[in-house]
Amino acid sequence: MRQHFNIDALAGYSLEEVDDTELIVNPLYRDVDSDVRKQVGKLSRKKVELSDITLKDIEPEKVEEYQQRKADLLEEITELSKEVEDMKECRKNTPKHIEMKDLPEEDRFRRLATRSKDLIDTIKMIAYRAETMMANILKGTMSHRDESRSLLQSIYTMEANLLPDESNKVLRVQLHNPANKMTARAIVNLCRELNETKVFFPGTDLRLVYDLVS
């Protein structure tokens, strides 16, 4: 659907107000959570740094330097661990979601209107399901089954004759014959299946009948 129906595209740029009772992510929680993640990352790096310290020389000066560096890192890790625990406790006591009305005025926002997109996306999904059904029909008579959607896309742009027959209550759709015989056979089979559904053209009493121009 992303490739052929552009399901992720915006349907418009109009904005709408957010209901006061709608739950949104608390900006304060988001900030605290970001700080926690940063401190946890910093703590992890310090622990790795501590584990990488090795004593390669037993000379007194080297041993003293090794012990001092390790002691400094251990102290820093202890302080960072305490900070992380305090920050996690703060995050725990901060509501993750709040109602829109509780958001500070300067943080209030509007969002993209979704009604038109919901409608258009529904139409796209119906069209996609219809295309999937027709693709499955085509696969039964195609040697390259993975090309069924490509064939449908070519049919959409194929020239056709529209012949309304009021006396027989039929709207005949005549597709022009493709050069490839295998393709023509697949399209004939598709037309046969579609004709069996006995669909009427919207707003009329004319039944749609599909076939190929001989």
Describe the protein.
The structure is a single chain. The chain has 214 residues and is α+β, with helices and mostly antiparallel strands. It has three domains: 63 residues; 88 residues; 57 residues, Alpha-Beta Plaits (2-Layer Sandwich). 53% of the residues lie in helices and 13% in strands. Strands 5-6-7 form a three-stranded mixed beta sheet. A hairpin with a 4-residue loop joins strand 5 and strand 6. Helix 2 runs antiparallel to helix 3. The relative contact order is 0.12.
Class computed from helices, strands and strand pairing: alpha+beta
Q: What is the overall number of helices?
A: 6
Secondary-structure element order, as H and E?
Answer: HEEHHEEHHEEHE
Major beta-sheet overview: 3 strands, mixed
pLDDT averaged over residues: 85
SSE topology:
Elements: H1 2-5, E1 15-16, E2 23-25, H2 27-52, H3 60-92, E3 97-99, E4 111-112, H4 115-139, H5 148-156, E5 160-165, E6 170-175, H6 181-196, E7 207-212
Parallel strand pairs: 6-7
Antiparallel strand pairs: 1-4, 2-3, 5-6
Helix pairs in contact: 2-3, 4-6
Primary descriptors:
two-stranded antiparallel ribbon; Alpha-Beta Plaits; 3 domains; 7 strands; 6 helices; 53% helix; elongated; alpha+beta
At a glance:
The protein is an alpha+beta fold and 214 residues long. The chain has helices spanning 2-5, 27-52, 60-92, 115-139, 148-156, 181-196; strands spanning 15-16, 23-25, 97-99, 111-112, 160-165, 170-175, 207-212.
